[in-house]
Every structure is written in structure tokens, then in C-alpha cells.
Specification:
Radius of gyration: 15 Å
Shape: elongated
Mean pLDDT: 90
Oligomer: single chain
Strand content: under 5%
């Protein structure tokens, strides 16, 4: 048989992951250099793609928390560069 059926928790976490992805992409608008912005977007996308098939709820929650921390650390730094 295929993969197990996702639970409600999986759907909620997927929604949170998509929101985090959108926030991270929006945050790159503050990067003034076009090439740097493009590289940052590519890195963000590759990180999400790399973790796309993670099914363990605890691992997903940890990765979301880590991503939120990284985004919070980057946002103040980016606002200083604009």
C-alpha cells in the first residue's frame, strides 16, 4: 500500500508551513541586491523542498519552529540594510 493517510494535524502543519514559506519569500523583498534576493529565494525553496516528504509530526513542528526563529533573526537584519 501507499503512504499513510494524513491526519488533521498534518493538514494544520501543512498550512503553517505554507504560511511560513510565504512570509520568508515576502521577507526577501527587503534584500536590495537582485542576485542576492534570487539566491535567498532559491535557498528557501530548496529547504522546503528538501523537507517536503517529512511525515513525523514532531519533526515537522521542530522544523517549523526553527524556520520561524531564523525568519525572526533575519527580519531585523534585513530592515537595517534597506
Amino acid at each position: 500500500m501507499g503512504q499513510p493517510t494524513p491526519t488533521l494535524k498534518h493538514f494544520i502543519l501543512r498550512h503553517q508551513a505554507l504560511n511560513l514559506y510565504r512570509q520568508a519569500i515576502r521577507a526577501t523583498r527587503h534584500i536590495p541586491h537582485t542576485d542576492s534576493r534570487r539566491e535567498t529565494i532559491a535557498w528557501i525553496r530548496s529547504e522546503f523542498e528538501r523537507n517536503r516528504h517529512v511525515q513525523d509530526v514532531n519533526v515537522i513542528e521542530d522544523k517549523l519552529a526553527s524556520g520561524r526563529r531564523e525568519l525572526r533573526q533575519l527580519l531585523p537584519a534585513m530592515s537595517m540594510t534597506s
